[in-house]
Amino acid sequence: MINLKKVQMLPAREQVASILRSSILSGGISKGQSITLDSIGEQVGMSRTPVREAFQILANEGLLELRQNRCAIVKGISIEAIKDHYEMRILLETEALRRACQHMNDETLKAIQTVNKQGQRAKEAGDTEAYNLANQAFHMTIWEAADSEKLKSFLSLLWNGLSMNHLVTAQEYAGISLADHNKIVEQLEKKDYEGACETMRQHIIYSMNSTLANYKN
Fold it and tell me: What whole-number distance in Å separates Cα of residue 203 and Cα of residue 15?
């Protein structure tokens, strides 16, 4: 049984890593900028421990250079690094959905439908923060249905939330994201599993192109 409460949220360290990763990939935190455990902890409302662990995760990815005195320096991001990040997500997200399709039953489909409806309600309410959480829950429900702790762990480490593009508003981007989610759900309902995996692949490619557009601008 898929416990939706369990899949609604990433572990604390990965939540912090996701926020920082998204900011670095989008250019919100610039190259050479110094960040500290205390400043980030205050911003995200968490203690030093998950922030320290998030710093280590991003240092392993080559996005941060750890320094003494509980601080880190943001390293430069490149087009190649952005592409590599999203190409890994494409491989793993489509594999997770493929495995979820292998285990697909009424319960799994209902769980995916339920989190998608949460996204629809958030979008209709114009609540971007709630949509961001619903977006995360949608993907995590698929990871859970893939029934692979290793795959879910890798995907959690790559998560960076909505890949916002400066050329569209938050509401417009949520609409684009939701349209893809709706299509995936419709394809799962029709048992068009190959089509659903292709839609997921295109979904992540759009995110990659959005992030690349931010970088180039």
Answer: 21
